[in-house]
Amino acid sequence: VMRTIHDRYAPAKRNPYNEVEFSDFYARAMASYGSFIAACGFEYNGPAGTIGFDPVMQPENFRAPFTAAEGWGTFSQTIADSKMTAELGVNWGSVKLKSIKLNPQGQQIIAAKVTLDGAPVAAKLLLHQSGITINLNESVAIAAGQTLKIVAGN
């Protein structure tokens, strides 16, 4: 989809600054970003403190950048041997979270351990049809250089 959008409005063919189907300014870039976050299955609600990932490409070994209200970083997950490991690393700013939604791709998950830079974080695991939700007992602020890690399995 992104390649088709790009090729349709190639500067050699048309005015590169006025793409009728995507408005006049930055909508083309936003259309490309929209397909990126859809491929990541990314969802974020800053005021509620929720973030989620459900990648559609290579979910068993996935890594992508993310942006939040007050920071940005990298999310990665691996799924193998009835276990899912997910890491949320903040590179700049901070990310305040209360819950994390993940999809273990059919793995039977009955427990999850959450740590912030190796220190345990109290949390409750909720199972639902589309995956799991990890609700932290207290909100955490992940600062630049810190990593929140989730290991879920049976």
β-strand number? 10
Determine the N-to-C terminus distance.
38 Å
- Biggest sheet features: 10 strands, mixed
Which whole number gives the mean pLDDT? 88
Strand content: over 45%
Output the radius of gyration: 18 Å
What oligomeric state do these chains adopt?
Answer: single chain
The helix content is 10-25%
Global morphology:
globular
Number of helices: 2
Low-confidence stretches: none
Order of helices and strands: HHEEEEEEEEEE
What structural class do helix, strand and pairing data support? mainly beta
Can you put this structure into words, describing what you see?
With 154 residues, the chain is mainly β. Helix content is 14%, strand content 51%. The protein has helices at residues 2-8, 27-40, and strands spanning 43-45, 50-53, 61-67, 71-80, 83-102, 111-116, 119-121, 123-128, 131-143, 147-153. Strands 1, 2, 3, 4, 5, 6, 7, 8, 9 and 10 form a ten-stranded mixed beta sheet that branches. The model has no long low-confidence stretch (mean pLDDT 88).
